[in-house]
Amino acid sequence: MQARFTPGQVIARREMLDGREWLLYPVRVVADEGDLLAVYLAEGTPLTFGTGEFRWGPHPWSELDPFWQSDGVLQIQRSAAAYAVWPRWKGNTFDGWYVNFQQPMRRTEHGFDTLDPPRPADGESPRGCARGRPDGRCWTPTGTIRTVMYD
Predict the structure, then answer these.
(1) Measuring CA to CA, which residue among 74, 46, 55 is closest to residue 125?
(2) What is the rounded CA–CA span in Å between residue 120 and residue 111?
(3) pLDDT digit string (tens) for 83-96?
(4) CA distance 39 to 11
């Protein structure tokens, strides 16, 4: 197992598609217990999108401003789990839970890799999140939640 990260350390969360970074953003480590990693994504965090051709096209959020626009969010994931739990707050008030379906995290020297490809109900394209399709829901960096189907 790779070394644990230190609380307060800034690490990279990467969504990897086609062996390349599809989305990259920094997160701050809250806790690292080996199998469990909790990180915080702060409001205003810059989002970096991969360039070039991807089999699913550009990341759906690349059509929005390139920073996390909603309130900050804690992201809690376990190494073997195909999801992360994101408790949400509005200011000091708990605002609910979000379950982010994603590939199990893979630790790297500088953070971790995963991928959470949204799939609209018609199966045509994973770009439904940013396009506002009525048939699905996903979370966008502006805090919008819509439902999607996942593989």
Answers:
(1) 55
(2) 29
(3) 999 998 888 888 88
(4) 9
Domain contains 144: no
Q: Is the pLDDT of residue 135 over 60?
A: no
Query: Does residue 46 lie in a domain region?
Result: yes
Place of tokens 């609910």: 96
Burial of 96 (0-12, 13-18, 19+ CB in 10 A): exposed
Cβ partners under 8 Å of residue 128, min gap 6: 60, 118, 119, 120, 135, 136, 138, 146, 148
Q: Which residues form the domain of 67?
A: 10-116
| Rounded Cα distance, 13 and 120, in Å | 24
